[in-house]
DNA sequence: GCGACAG
DNA sequence: ATCTTGTCGC
């Protein structure tokens, strides 16, 4: 595979200090502006896929463009085929019976175009490094790159499960993967690693957002710098409260554009569709492996 | 020493 | 992340 920055690819034998130094290099190589960013309207997902009867089949653009099906009956359009490709990435873990620690990662990549799935890919990789807060990319980065390698489609945007710029050295998983491949990427986390939301996130309506600003834990940014957003992607009218998402730039997008993209990719559920589908695909691959 | 921390 | 039933509310 052609890594954009093979020089920034981590060596498995790095010490913790060396990993942190590499993250500072990766953050320096990352761009958090919209010069190459996508238009949220171009990637919007209108309707959520139903997962009740399993994952939807991948659409075959080539056949649809040739008019293989009944005339006019196809839901795919030429515009869909030309739309940017958004790839959601997520992982599941395999633990051997009797063991307490997972020994392999299942990385799933699901490509969407015009709101529907065009390709599923996955890779199962032995795990070497344990989970350490701040160093997640060294555990999950290579497995994710392995899954992306098996994708035929070239991603225009990666949606990663975890932080991007919301990170101690502004180099979370989404930034790590985005920079190594030099592809625009966003990070979507279900909890906050570091930084401080401008406003309390308690009981907010759907669509609400507030900037997350760097605090003292972020060692590479001036305190107060906007590094991402808390975003209420879903909320119930009554009672039960849904926690917000924490969205941050990975690479080649601003904090503002990152949330706009994620908002456009949400279709009624808490998680954006690419992430939701990648999660389900990873679970399916895992289940078929046990 | 304690806190605090994506998946 | 993973181990898991029911249960509450849409």
Distance between the first and last residues' Cα: 29 Å
Strand order of the largest sheet: 3-2-1-4-5-9-8-7-6
CATH domain topology: archaeoglobus fulgidus dsm 4304 fold
Biggest sheet: strands, sense, closure?
9 strands, mixed
Mean pLDDT: 91
- The appropriate CATH architecture is 2-Layer Sandwich
Topology as a string of helices (H) and strands (E): HHHHEEEHEHEEEEEHH
Number of contiguous helices:
8
The whole-angstrom Rg is: 19 Å
- Shape by Cα distribution: globular
At the first level of CATH, what is the class? Alpha Beta
Percent range for helical residues? 25-40%
What would you call the structural class? alpha+beta
Per DSSP E runs of 2 or more residues, the count of β-strands stands at: 9
Tell me the count of domains: 1
Strand residues, percent: 15-25%
Low-confidence stretches: 65-79
Binding site for Mg(2+): 90, 161
Subcellular location: Cytoplasm
Enzyme class: hydrolase
EC number: 3.1.21.7
């Amino acid at each position: 595979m052609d890594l954009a920055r093979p020089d920034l690819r981590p060596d498995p034998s790095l010490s913790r200090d060396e990993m942190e130094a590499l993250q500072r290099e990766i953050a320096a190589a990352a761009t958090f502006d919209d010069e190459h960013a996508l238009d949220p309207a171009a990637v919007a997902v209108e309707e959520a896929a139903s997962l009740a009867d399993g994952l939807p089949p991948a659409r075959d653009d080539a056949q649809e463009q040739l008019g293989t099906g009944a005339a006019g009956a196809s839901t795919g359009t030429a515009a869909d085929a030309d739309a940017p490709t958004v790839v959601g990435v997520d992982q599941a873990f395999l633990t051997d019976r009797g063991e307490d620690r997972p020994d392999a990662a299942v990385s799933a990549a699901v490509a969407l175009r015009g709101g529907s799935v065009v390709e599923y890919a996955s890779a199962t990789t032995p795990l070497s490094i344990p989970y350490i807060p701040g160093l997640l990319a060294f555990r999950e980065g290579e497995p994710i790159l392995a899954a992306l390698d098996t994708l035929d489609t070239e991603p225009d945007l990666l949606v990663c499960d975890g932080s991007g710029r919301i990170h101690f050295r502004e180099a979370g998983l989404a930034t790590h993967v985005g920079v190594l491949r030099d592809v625009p990427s966003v990070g979507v986390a279900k909890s906050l690693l570091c930084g401080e939301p401008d406003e309390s996130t308690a009981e907010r309506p759907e669509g609400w957002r507030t900037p997350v600003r760097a605090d003292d834990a972020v060692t590479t940014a001036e305190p107060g710098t906007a590094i991402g957003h808390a975003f209420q992607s879903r909320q119930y009218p009554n009672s039960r409260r849904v926690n917000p998402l924490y969205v941050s730039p990975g690479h080649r997008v601003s904090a503002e554009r990152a949330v706009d993209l994620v908002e456009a990719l949400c279709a009624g559920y808490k998680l954006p569709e690419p992430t939701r589908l990648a999660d389900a695909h990873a679970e399916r691959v895992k289940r078929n492996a046990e």
